[in-house]
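Step 1: inspect the first sequence and its tokens.
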Amino acid sequence: LNNRYPLLPKDESLKALDDPQAKWKRILKDEVYSRLPLGLRASLYFLYRYLFRLGFLDGTKGFIWHFLQGFWYRLLVDAKIMELLEKSGGDVERIKEILAEEHGIRL
């Protein structure tokens, strides 16, 4: 949400990390995942975790874990983002007002 609507200043210290794996994950998160359509990204992330990261090898418990953490949680986050954008019309100041009124988050 902060990538599209500048609610908070970006943390530039994350770019200073020397770890190549951390840089790669940051690029995927900021440049790919955050630009995918809401709802679709939860499905793709679940498939990535469950199939490509071999989560299916963990059996039923692994399916439940990857479904709840990799799909369900992220789908709930996307639903809250969609709700917030619908209420605010994409206006940054209105987003801040809604977050303060409904959730007690002051930005």
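Step 2: inspect the second sequence and its tokens, then contrast the two.
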Amino acid sequence: MSATTEAFFAGLDAGAPRLPPTIDGTLRFDVRYRDHTEQWLLRFAAGGRVQAEQSGADADCVAVIDGPLFERLLRGEERLTATFVRYAFTIEGDFTMVPAFEWLLPDMVGARDPRQLAQGWGRAR
């Protein structure tokens, strides 16, 4: 398991993620590396709670993704929706679990609030 993956899932256990309270279900990621596949199961529960474990148990939704791409998502270097539109990973089952996972991901590297940009632009004039 990579340090990026380990830190991300440990962080989920350590703090309350920012999830809508109505999400309920399971999502499994089959993360493929050159020589092995890691399986991560996320259990979303009403009230905005999420638990992660390394498990190949059945899930409402299964996403298959390459390891390096998964790690870029976890570091905020890629957007989940954009990778799906590019057919960079596959999904089977209840698709609504995928946007729930996107809530857990960090903001994009270098992303800023547009209001900050507008304030800076006004001062530059």
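Step 3: confirm your contrast with the notes below.
The chain has one domain: 3-124. The chain has a mean pLDDT of 85.
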